[in-house]
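name: query_chain
kind: protein
chains: 1
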Amino acid sequence: MDGRNLKQDPLTGGCQCGKVRYRLFASPQRPHVCHCRMCQKASGAPFMAFAEVAMHDFAWTREEPSWFRSSEAVERGFCSTCGTPLHFRYVGSDKLDITLASLDEPNLVQPEEEVGCEGRLSWIDLIDQLPRSTTEATTPPEVLKTYASRQHPDHE
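structure:
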């Protein structure tokens, strides 16, 4: 974290379309990456990144997510309009694990551990060795013009 006072300057986040928004009033704890198969299926990605926050330090500020109970023990929140995965919670828990990428400033909270490694895809280690490019460098200008974002800005 950057040392900010979250009671005065909370972390905020939300879904891609802006229908669901939230605030954190305390630093999220236990930031981690989960490789389990449920997280892979829930995100359509090789892993999900989360951090835990107590419910009394968290508030939905614009609508609430839809819920999917992915097992007897776990429920997941997502935007019913755009599909953005927003959180994971053990049923009945007083804590919520928010998705780090749904934060408006996702670089402020960095994962400190990996969990669910039984599902870790074998090619994850290769990613750092792959060639890198930006969208602008690999997309013709006439196509870039069609990329006008419908995404909610990363702020309230």
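note: The radius of gyration is 17 Å.
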